[in-house]
Amino acid sequence: MVTEQENQEKIARMQQDVDIVKRMDRIKYKIAVMSGKGGVGKSTVSVNIAAAFAKKGYKTGIMDADIHGPNVPKMFGVEGKTLIFDKEGILPVETENGIKVMSISFLLSSQDVPIIWRGPAQTGAVKQFLGEINWGDLDVLIIDNPPGTGDIPLTILQTLPSLDGVVIVTTPQSVVQEDVVKSINLVKSLNIPIIGIIENMSGFICPHCENEIFIFGKDSGPKIAEEMDIPFLGKLPLDMKTSEASDIGNPIVIKEPESEISKKISDIVNKIEKTIKKEASP
Ligand SMILES: Nc1ncnc2c1ncn2[C@@H]1O[C@H](COP(=O)(O)OP(=O)(O)OP(=O)(O)O)[C@@H](O)[C@H]1O
Ligand SMILES: [Mg+2]
């Protein structure tokens, strides 16, 4: 027999799903950034894609879904901000450029305390997040995922209604390839469109001899794209100024819009824009 408590829990879960649909209905395009591998640049790419969309005039938000290593607030220079709760939900923090940022780290008392949540608690936290954040009306929401194909990316992919697609990030290193293919297969198995794959940390221009050095190897991104039959969005070089810009909370596309890497990011964002607009039109 179903107990009263079980009934109440079921109703609460259904209400949460309704809340998520209502919130997400007010966001035109939703893009998840993923990779089967850690440290390949998902957060760097997410932050810069969000900043590039904002520069194009899109009302933009970014959700940091990485509960173990939430880096997005730092990369946007808004870490340590306190959240405002009102009767409409939780208000995201806004950057100087008007980008709305939400991260589990805003709920933590100290950035140095690790979160120990088991699978179901992680799923619950992400769903609560999705249902309670009052983004208002947005044109684009970028969701930065933790590495891998675990509970959080899976919950995002399964729960978000009308996700426009996934951007996959890889590096040229061959050991990364296997894990990245796994994440592509997960997205495909859920019938969610893959917008394309970005090869990050692809080549480095030596400041002394100006030759390009391929620290992590070469061309694994285009190879994965071809083998998995997904679009290739472009290569981003290893660039010291990019990591420095993230560290000071000012994404490279805002800090140095004329740099080579910023232009490459803009090209990638133009491709993403084309894809999501095409998919959205009847
Ligand atoms: N193109 C790049 N050039 C130079 N440094 C980069 C580049 N992309 C990322 N980095 C640096 O590499 C490190 C890892 O990047 P980032 O945190 O974006 O990866 P991630 O995939 O989000 O990692 P995690 O799996 O931990 O979430 C950071 O120090 C970041 O500044
Ligand atoms: Mg990250």
Task: Compile the SSE list and pairings.
Elements: H1 4-25, E1 27-34, H2 42-55, E2 60-64, H3 72-75, E3 84-86, E4 89-91, E5 93-94, E6 100-103, H4 119-132, E7 138-144, H5 151-159, E8 165-170, H6 174-189, E9 194-199, E10 204-205, E11 212-213, H7 220-228, E12 232-235, H8 240-247, H9 252-255, H10 260-280
Parallel strand pairs: 1-7, 1-8, 2-6, 2-7, 8-9, 9-12
Antiparallel strand pairs: 3-4, 5-6, 10-11
Characterize the structure shown.
Helix 1 (4-25) crosses helix 4 (119-132), helix 2 (42-55) packs across helix 10 (260-280) and helix 4 runs parallel beside helix 5 (151-159). The protein is built from ten helices and twelve strands. It has 282 residues and is α/β, with parallel strands linked by helices. The strands form three sheets. Strands 5-6-2-7-1-8-9-12 form an eight-stranded mixed beta sheet, with helices on both faces. Strands 3-4 form a two-stranded antiparallel sheet. Helices cover 43% and strands 18% of the residues. Bound molecules: adenosine-5'-triphosphate and magnesium ion.
**What's the CATH class label?**
Alpha Beta
Number of strands: 12
Determine the fraction of residues in helical runs and give it as a percent range.
Answer: 40-55%
Which hetero compounds are present in the coordinates?
Answer: adenosine-5'-triphosphate, magnesium ion
Approximate shape: globular
Q: What's the quick description here?
A:
The chain is of the alpha/beta class and 282 residues long. The chain is built from ten helices and twelve strands. The chain has one domain (31-280): 3-Layer(aba) Sandwich (Rossmann fold).
